[in-house]
Automatic annotation (TrEMBL), chain A:
<dbReference type="InterPro" id="IPR030678">
    <property type="entry name" value="Peptide/Ni-bd"/>
</dbReference>
<comment type="similarity">
    <text>Belongs to the bacterial solute-binding protein 5 family.</text>
</comment>
<dbReference type="GO" id="GO:0043190">
    <property type="term" value="C:ATP-binding cassette (ABC) transporter complex"/>
</dbReference>
<feature type="signal peptide">
    <location>
        <begin position="1"/>
        <end position="23"/>
    </location>
</feature>
<dbReference type="InterPro" id="IPR039424">
    <property type="entry name" value="SBP_5"/>
</dbReference>
<keyword id="KW-0732">Signal</keyword>
<keyword id="KW-0813">Transport</keyword>
<protein>
    <recommendedName>
        <fullName>Solute-binding protein family 5 domain-containing protein</fullName>
    </recommendedName>
</protein>
<feature type="domain" description="Solute-binding protein family 5">
    <location>
        <begin position="72"/>
        <end position="472"/>
    </location>
</feature>
From TrEMBL, chain B:
<dbReference type="InterPro" id="IPR000515">
    <property type="entry name" value="MetI-like"/>
</dbReference>
<dbReference type="Pfam" id="PF12911">
    <property type="entry name" value="OppC_N"/>
</dbReference>
<keyword id="KW-0472">Membrane</keyword>
<keyword id="KW-0812">Transmembrane</keyword>
<dbReference type="GO" id="GO:0055085">
    <property type="term" value="P:transmembrane transport"/>
</dbReference>
<keyword id="KW-1003">Cell membrane</keyword>
<keyword id="KW-1133">Transmembrane helix</keyword>
<feature type="transmembrane region" description="Helical">
    <location>
        <begin position="272"/>
        <end position="290"/>
    </location>
</feature>
<dbReference type="Pfam" id="PF00528">
    <property type="entry name" value="BPD_transp_1"/>
</dbReference>
């Protein structure tokens, strides 16, 4: 390894002399990035995996990116359209983007409004499964006013019109390359999907699916001084502890994505002094989803659907409330997350203006209160210490994905629930299966054939409208919609649906924040979602890497063109 | 050789076959050492939890990541669970899985191997079945089996017993092929030997021939497979648990303890040393026992 490193450094030194003519571009040699989930495709419209979206964000640019502080910065556009500068229409039904006229694709052809229009049509094609569909929600049409002006029309008033083409999930792809790949043919265009032509700082050199991507600097990048690195190697695979170790302890890599390691292990890795942990608090919340419908296997096709009837005991709000009260969230943070987690009582913990303070009682554990609540509701301890009522035992099947931190949390919560007389059986499922969305597997988080499940979710950008819309009745996953939907608890309330609809038509930021808080409080006070930990997004960066700031609102690699090598 | 054996038996009292085997086994130092260690491990995991009475699943957060103390001789893990209690209770599961799965795969493998080797007509179909099983991708197969039977078994036998039966079955059903192939080869060779010919010439039936003449002669490879099988079963169980297909995550087994401890190796080496040592000692001692038994059962070595 050391030899290889010397070689790399020698190459880097050599290339410094070779590229003097090109100012600073490519002067810093090779950048080694480790992702513990391997990249399988470089077209973000065809993959829901964060790793795929981030790997392609080095190649493809959207019209604007989110900066690490949550603000928007134009990328391919000249400015961010607002009502004040006339970019957003007064009735909120259209947004007009002015494009930069000096941008060319990495193959040298000019970038025009036609490419933007094409990208929208590519995603909106009804025959193709577009992963960024929620970004393009309510888009009626996209038209090119001239070569460098694009107008997006919405079918309803959009108080937050920055869904399309903002952030790494919805970048602009080249019409010339993808025009044969519309709709059902999209997944078949392997060459384009594995090596898209982009406007970003890097171009694909070699891509081995589910293994390594190597990039080289885009000679036609719009900023002549960027990127500082001549090549990038993005290695996929392994596990989080291994990739983190490769940055912090052995120094083989410069950047490791998504660190999920116990705090004491992390401390020890950091003691080697080769790198540091960078983190930022976005909107990620580790939460428990409570199953409100009956997951009994004997129900067959009606299992875990609204038709199958309510859950035998979790449909009782007292049980749900007691489960939440019994949890000591401070211990969960201390054991599993350390400085990278905070106790939270909200499913919507950030940005600040949307965070409710109405539920903070959950921050302190209340075992006696939980016991009293269950006693009052008629759930009395049976001969084996497990509470029961009318022959129904409080016995919970609790599932999550396989990850040592999560299994630790599971074990802790099991013990806390045991104290109030609730029996728990733990189950962990491989992350690929759990989050995979395979229709044939009973173990996906959408099917939720269990009583409680735990995972983290967040939303891109800073606007919670789409995120809070996850828990309306129509989002309930069921066989009728191929188990696609985000309402895992199967929560359904007319009042909530009305609030969600109202938010879609409200422009004022104060009113939106009040609505979002109200929706959050409703979910919390019904105890259908039990929030545990507000998680920071954590990655590891080598000490020799400069200008790295973790970006919780967009792809972590969205600003990789600014990264440099420092000694 | 026969003369020598005849002369030695003359002056001494009558000796039985199994007496001879035992005597020969006791001469095998490795085998005896293996037996002692294996018995000790077995004894420890069976009776240890009655002496060291800490609940292996109890989390004591204030005492996490401890080194060895009098109360926790093997330290505690990052959730404050007692190391010794976990190793002991994990050993029960791992040994039970290892022995039961080995027995199942051995039974299947030997049966199929002998049938295929002895009966020419069965050879083709049985060996093609073996090839089929060898060609099956194990992981998807496991996924399907677990998907189909997990909930049924769970409701019938409870989560832990249900998974135990499933794992034993899955490991047994996917690891008999090598035994079958080895046994078949050995049977093919033995079947052509003179003593089998002699037995057939005096009219011995197939069942008798197999039990009396063939089986004892293929016992050596079977023993070797058996000892290796336990090791494989213990390791496979841990791999399954790691993928989330095995026992619940708070249910200790040696393999799981090893996997969970790997990240904490530099912080708390005891977490990997003890379960690792337990697995290695078990596998090694079982291997030596197998070696000893093999030698003791071999008439050409015995009595020399």
């Amino acid at each position: 390894m050391r030899k290889l490193k010397t070689l790399i450094m020698a190459t880097a030194a050599a290339s410094t002399f070779a590229t003097v003519a090109l100012a600073e571009r490519g002067s810093d040699g090779n950048l080694n990035v480790a992702y513990w989930q391997a990249v399988s495709i470089l077209n973000p419209y065809l993959s829901g995996g964060t790793k795929d979206i981030e790997a392609s964000s080095l190649i493809l640019d959207p019209l604007a990116n989110y900066r690490p502080d949550g603000s928007m910065e134009p990328a391919l556009a000249t400015e961010i359209p607002t009502i004040e500068n006339g970019g957003v229409s007064e009735d909120l039904t259209s947004i007009t983007w002015k494009l930069r006229d000096d941008v060319v694709w990495s193959d040298g052809t000019p970038f025009t409004a036609a490419d933007v229009v094409f990208s929208a049509n590519y995603c909106l094609d009804p025959e193709g499964g577009c992963n960024a569909a929620s970004n393009f929600a309510d888009v009626e049409s996209v038209e090119a006013l001239d070569d460098h002006t694009v107008k997006i029309n919405f079918s309803v008033a959009k108080p937050f019109p920055y869904g399309p083409f903002v952030g790494a999930t919805a970048p602009v792809i080249q019409e010339a390359q993808f025009k044969e790949c519309m709709g059902a043919k999209a997944p078949e265009c392997t060459e384009a999907n594995f090596g898209p032509i982009g406007t970003g700082p890097f171009v694909v050199d070699e891509f081995r699916a589910n293994d390594v991507v190597t990039y080289k600097a885009n000679e036609n990048y719009r900023d002549p001084a960027q990127p500082a690195f001549a090549t990038v190697t993005l290695k996929g695979g392994g596990d989080s502890a291994a990739t983190t170790r490769s940055v912090l302890e052995t120094g083989e890599f410069d950047y490791a994505w998504n660190v999920q390691v116990e705090p004491e292990v992390l401390d020890q890795m950091m003691a080697a002094g080769k790198g540091e942990i960078i983190s930022a608090f976005g909107t990620s919340v580790e939460r428990l989803m409570v199953q409100l419908t009956n997951p009994d296997p004997s129900l067959g096709d009606k299992r875990a659907t609204v038709e199958g009837g309510p859950h035998p005991f979790l449909s009782d709000i007292n049980v749900r409330k007691a489960l939440s009260m019994a949890i000591d969230r401070d211990i969960l943070v201390e054991v599993g997350y350390g400085p990278n987690g905070q106790v939270t009582c909200n499913v919507l913990p950030a940005p600040e203006i949307y965070a409710s303070t109405a539920n903070d009682a959950c921050k302190t554990q209340d075992v006696e209160g939980a016991k009293a609540l269950l006693d009052e509701a008629g759930w009395l301890p049976g001969p084996d210490g497990v509470r029961e009522k009318d022959g129904v035992r409080l016995s919970i099947l609790y599932q999550t994905s396989t990850n040592s931190v999560r299994q630790g949390t599971q074990a802790l919560i099991k013990q806390m629930w045991q104290e109030i007389g609730v029996e728990t059986e733990l189950r962990n499922i491989d992350a690929g299966v759990f989050f995979g969305g395979d229709q044939s597997s009973p173990d996906t988080f959408q099917k939720f054939f269990a009583d409680i499940e735990m995972y983290t979710n967040n939303f891109d950008g800073t606007d919670p409208e789409a995120y809070m819309g996850n828990w309306v009745c129509s989002e309930i996953p069921s066989p009728k919609n191929q188990w696609i939907g985000n309402n895992m608890p199967r929560f359904c309330s007319e009042e909530y649906d009305a609030l969600s609809a109202e938010m879609g038509q409200t422009a004022s930021i104060e009113k939106r924040s009040a609505l979002a808080k109200k929706m959050n409080d409703m979910l919390m006070q019904e105890y259908v979602i039990i929030p545990l930990i507000h998680r920071g997004r954590v990655s590891a960066a080598s000490n020799t890497l400069g200008n790295v700031v973790l970006n919780p609102w967009d792809s972590e690699l969205a600003f990789a063109e600014e990264w440099t090598r420092v000694e | 050789m026969t003369d020598q054996a005849a002369t030695t038996t003359l002056g001494k009292p009558q000796r039985s076959l199994w007496g001879d085997v035992l005597r020969q086994f006791l001469k095998h130092k490795g085998g005896v050492a293996g037996l002692v260690i294996f018995s000790f491990i077995l004894f420890a995991v069976l009776f240890g939890p009655y002496i060291h009475t800490i609940d292996p699943q109890y989390l004591d957060i204030r005492n996490k990541n401890l080194g060895p103390t009098w109360k926790h001789p093997m330290g505690t893990d990052n959730l404050g669970r007692d190391g010794l209690a976990q190793v002991l209770s994990g050993g029960r599961v791992s040994l039970a899985v290892g022995i039961a799965a080995m027995a199942l795969s051995l039974l299947l493998g030997t049966l199929i191997g002998i049938l295929a080797g002895f009966f020419r007509k069965l050879d083709g179909p049985l060996m093609r079945t073996t090839d089929l099983f060898l060609a099956l991708p194990i992981l998807p197969l496991l996924l399907v089996i677990i998907l189909l039977f997990r909930d049924t078994l769970r409701s019938a036998f409870g989560p832990e017993m249900g998974i135990f039966l499933l794992i034993v079955f899955v490991i047994g059903i996917t690891s008999w092929m090598n035994t079958a192939r080895i046994v078949r080869g050995e049977v093919l060779a033995v079947k052509e030997r003179e003593f089998v010919l002699a037995a057939r010439s005096i009219g011995t039936g197939s069942t008798k021939t197999i039990l009396r003449h063939i089986f004892p002669n293929v016992l050596s490879p079977v023993m070797v497979s058996a000892t290796l099988g336990i090791a494989t079963a213990i390791i496979t169980e841990s791999a399954l648990s790691f993928l989330g297909l095995g026992f619940p995550s708070d249910f200790p087994t040696w393999g799981r303890l090893l996997y969970d401890g790997a990240n904490f190796m530099t912080l708390n080496p005891a977490r990997v040393i003890w379960p690792g040592l337990a697995i290695s000692l078990t596998v090694l001692s079982v291997n030596y026992i197998g070696d000893g038994i093999r030698d003791a059962l071999d008439p050409r070595i015995r009595g020399r």
